[in-house]
Amino acid sequence: EYSCEYGSLKFYALCGVGGVLSCGLTHTAVVPLDLVKCRMQVDPQKYKSIFNGFSVTIKEDGTRGLAKGWAPTFIGYSMQGLCKFGFYEVFKILYGNMLGEENAYLWRTSLYLAASASAEFFADIALAPMEAAKVRIQTQPGYANTLRQALPKMFGEEGIWAFYKGVAPLWMR
């Protein structure tokens, strides 16, 4: 009747895969727009508007330049989706069991909010390293063109902290 039992490992895995597909693919699909937005934030004199930003990027980097940062975007947001969707269900069941069936129903909105916030806490930790690499690739000309170049350079310059400086703003968002 059902593809898997509610609360089973398969259930959590399917929720996680749903998160990978929905977050990883959608964020990767809008990389060109995100790239221009980030560049507008960093250098508003050069990138005056969305359309101007696309034009400048294509003129300087070609059409392929619009895909800069696709790999850390795909990996980072896939990891975030995995954690967000998978851990939401884990925490929903965990907190529901702690409250008991009747209280879980009565306090379901609060339970869902707590489960969502808990999942997002871990999801942002999973996202932060790739988001940091993506922003450097997209906004610091000459820093790195690929994830393979950015990761060792970031670690060599700042150590592990380079990957997690942005986690607190992600939590606040």
Strand content range: under 5%
Return the CATH architecture.
Answer: Alpha/alpha barrel
Total count of helical runs of at least 4 residues: 8
Determine the CATH topology. Mitochondrial carrier fold
Q: Which sheet architecture does the biggest sheet show?
A: none
- The pLDDT mean sits at 96
Spans where pLDDT lies below 50 across 5 or more residues: none
**Total number of beta strands:** 0
- So what's the CATH class? Mainly Alpha
Question: Radius of gyration from the CA trace?
Answer: 19 Å
Give the domain tally: 1
| Proportion of helical residues | over 70%
Order of helices and strands: HHHHHHHH
CA-based shape: elongated
| SSE-based structural type | mainly alpha
CATH superfamily (homologous) name: Mitochondrial carrier domain
Distance between the termini: 39 Å
Plain-language structure description:
With 173 residues, the chain is mainly α. The chain has one domain: Mitochondrial carrier fold. It is built from 8 helices and no strands. Helix 4 (70-99) packs antiparallel against helix 6.
Observed structural traits:
173 residues, mainly alpha, Mitochondrial carrier fold, 76% helix, elongated, transmembrane, membrane, mitochondrion inner membrane, transport
Question: What's the short version?
Answer:
This protein has 173 residues and is an all-alpha fold. The protein is 76% helix and 0% strand. Helix 1 packs antiparallel against helix 4, helix 2 crosses helix 3 and helix 4 (70-99) runs antiparallel to helix 6 (108-139).
